[in-house]
Amino acid sequence: MRDYSNPDLLITEDFETQEIGWQSPSNIAIIKYWGKHGVQLPRNPSISFTLSAAHTRTEVTYHPKSTADKIELEFYFEGKQNPAFSKKIEAFLTSILDIFPFLSQLKLVVHSSNSFPHSAGIASSASAMSALSLCLCSMEQELFKTLSDRNEFLEKASYISRLGSGSACRSVYPTMAAWGATSHLADTSDLYAVECGDQIHDVFKTYHDDILFISKKEKSVSSRAGHALMEGNPYAAPRYQQANDRFGLLMTALKTGDIAAFGELAEQEALTLHALMMTSNPAYILMTPNSMEAIARVQNFRKTTDIPLYFTLDAGPNLHLLYPHSVKEPVAKFIKEQLVELCEDGGFLEDAVGEGAFRYL
Ligand code: PMV
Questions:
Q1: Options 3.90.480.20, 3.30.70.890, 3.40.50.1010, 3.40.50.300; which CATH number does 202-349 get?
Q2: Residue 242 and residue 223: Cα distance in Å, rounded?
Q3: pLDDT of 184-200, one tens digit each?
Q4: Is residue 122 within 6 Å of ligand 1 at its C-beta?
């Protein structure tokens, strides 16, 4: 069992105030993580595309302070102080003081902003928590020079991201990442995600994932509450088995470039995720009539044109449209003519598989 707690990471020498900035993307799961146990451990393996346009930028400035007792944080979201987010981040930083004890020796000023509306079923926590975790790992490297190796750096950043928000652990890697131990992929772990972009067919490396903002309203049931409800769900055990089986099928489709098998699995997983919400107690529905209408139109478009456009859903009403780069033009026309009218304020985001997180400061 990996244990990152390290009482030696304490600052003993003078240092300069420094600023670190990371941009980290959102990700879209094809096999969904839904249900957890222990300290942010998944009940089943999941795999996602790393996105690009949907991302968070986080900057951390750290200053020396005289007393090393607790976290001292000033947190700004989109330029304004945000007490609710600040409280969450402070609790998160306090929970990882055994891993980064030096955090209690610093005053932290954090600025964070998203390229998309938060809490709209786009994994804003994934990009936000991974961006922050990458900043923390860079701080460790700057102060102690202990994370020089790229793989070790990203594995630790993924581990820390997971503690902040499960699915965030997949966002630190380019292209595609898997999280959760499974026999269908080597070196997988429940503790951190692994990079798997090198295992997939080229067609998936430039895949598109356009996000339809069916509703930008905050979700009525948070993911945290949704995961917790899985504990009493009578379908939980067969679901976890199904996710593992589908993971194996998906790996085959990804390796061979089987777009149809990939798309079928993506849609099945999306609908299973929402079926699990509808079979929770209390039961709830996050899709809206426009989500359903958009699904029907996507499936009809595919049937009548033979263009391999498929959808997936996150824990929210918004559709993610998955398609290969070769059909970009007809899909763009279809979105404009038939889907934009179903989106709140006509909003959608053209996104695609991306290069992963990067440090800009
Ligand atoms: O990471 P969380 O706790 O926000 O859960 C996200 C779960 C899904 O987005 C619905 C699926 C996934 O694997 O990303």
A1: 3.30.70.890
A2: 20
A3: 999 999 999 999 999 99
A4: no
